[in-house]
């Protein structure tokens, strides 16, 4: 079993594998017969590459992952990141198959093929890494003669978050290194109510970490979070909320300027103060006063996260959502989780989040999103033979794109199947 528990605000869930899907899903979607019932997913849109294997019931059978780490003060470039992914992805595929007790032909110990489809991240993401992973996905699809399902990276995050937390219809705050969006499900699509108009929140955190020469291992955002826990004073940073959208570019410029004069105090090996320590003082400082890297990180987090929580709350108010789901790599940040939880508590709502196993880019989320798409086709198709599946999800469509919006995907194909467990909503879905 995994070492770390899944966090569900309001209570703490035990760390149990496999993770069940919502109990009121359609029995047709849950049925495991003699047909293959596993999907292998490949994720590699940024500096993390992962291979996951998930069953049709949402059980995570394998989810190994590797991260391309660069020296402090530097970022990761597409070419070098793609080279890293190509160097480790075959090892990851073998590791995932072994963890799922499958051989190189995706068969179990009885010689029966168990993988129903291969899913991969079509986009958005960095071009080179995306292509490196898509080539492997196409190869496995041809080798095993199974459908190739292209998956939207953002939708995969949302569906994995819903699976783990059992959040049925939440508003979604999607925060990562390349994306920042406030989302809610509407008319069969994940509608974007607000987003960044320039750079993503994760990119802003990473670039300040780079300016402060914080380590990149395992992630610069984690060291920003840890460094902020020693902060005592709030500095002056722009607060840029434009309707439902946010802007981090001006804030980043000011934060990078402050970083050049900040006193370096962060030690990754030193014991961390309690999370509440940074909130013990409400003292503020001007740019001319002496301040530390911890003060810069504290100010950066408090300002950026307040902007995100503000827009998320307005989305919840507009949609009437009774819960908020945090997804994406920055969703692991405990301070963001605490601020979102406080906002939700004031509204009488729930805040849902997962730990780093599923919040950060991983192959299991792609596999689960791929299963949802494949199963929606299978339920509605009159012919579900292997030949028909290969025609519905051909290898020739296995390309990548960096322009793939969250609301480009028709999620109603599988969301309507979930609603069939509820008679009133099932009638609406059919109409």
Overview of the molecule:
This protein is an alpha/beta fold and 431 residues long. The protein contains 14 helices and 15 strands. It has helices at 27-30, 78-99, 127-144, 153-165, 201-211, 220-228, 249-261, 293-319, 334-347, 356-359, 363-380, 386-392, 412-419, 423-430; strands at residues 7-8, 11-12, 38-43, 48-55, 60-62, 65-67, 115-123, 148-152, 171-175, 180-186, 189-195, 241-242, 245-246, 323-327, 350-352. Strands 3, 4, 5, 6, 7 and 8 form a six-stranded mixed beta sheet that branches. Strands 11-10-9-14-15 form a five-stranded mixed beta sheet, with helices on both faces. Strand 1 (7-8) and strand 2 form a beta hairpin. Helix 5 runs antiparallel to helix 8 and helix 8 (293-319) runs parallel beside helix 9. It is globular, with a radius of gyration of 22 Å. Mean pLDDT is 89; it is low at 1-33 and 422-431.
Share of residues in strands: 15-25%
Sheet with most strands: 6 strands, mixed
Helix count equals 14
Rg? 22 Å
How would you classify the quaternary structure? single chain
Given helix and strand content, the structural type is alpha/beta
Pattern of helices and strands: EEHEEEEHEHEHEEEHHEEHHEHEHHHHH
Report how far apart the termini are: 43 Å
Shape: globular
Low-confidence stretches: 1-33, 422-431
Helix content: 40-55%
- Mean pLDDT equals 89
How many beta strands in the DSSP annotation? 15
Blueprint of the fold:
Layout lengths: L6 E2 L2 E2 L14 H4 L7 E6 L4 E8 L4 E3 L2 E3 L10 H22 L15 E9 L3 H18 L3 E5 H13 L5 E5 L4 E7 L2 E7 L5 H11 L8 H9 L12 E2 L2 E2 L2 H13 L31 H27 L3 E5 L6 H14 L2 E3 L3 H4 L3 H18 L5 H7 L19 H8 L3 H8 L1
Parallel strand pairs: 3-7, 7-8, 9-14, 14-15
Antiparallel strand pairs: 1-2, 3-4, 4-5, 4-6, 9-10, 10-11, 12-13
Helix pairs in contact: 2-3, 4-11, 5-6, 5-7, 5-8, 6-8, 8-9
